[in-house]
Amino acid sequence: MKIRNSDLSKFNQHYKSEHYENLGILNNQLDRKKIDSRAIVEKLQNFQVAIPSWALGAGGTRFGRFSYGGEPSNLEEKIDDVGVIHALTQSAGAISLHIPWDIPKDAIAIKEQASEHGIVFDAVNSNTFQDQSEQKHSYKYGSLCNVNKDIRDQAIAHNQEVIDYGKALDSKSMTVWLSDGSNFPGQQDFKKAFQNTQDSLQQIYQHLPDDWKLFIEYKPYEPNFYSTVIPDWGTSLMLAEGCGSQAYTLVDLGHHLPNTNIEQIVAILMMKGKLGGFHFNDSKYGDDDLTCGSIKPYQLFLIFNELVDGMENNESGNPPLAWMIDASHNIKDPLEDLIQSLEAIRIAYAQALLIDRAALLRAREESDVVRCQEIMQAAYRYDVRPLLAEARRLSGGAIDPIGFYRDKGVRKGLIKERGVNSVASGL
Ligand code: RM4
Ligand code: MN
Ligand code: MN
Question: How far is the CA of 96 from the centre of ligand 2 (A)?
Answer without folding.
Answer: 11
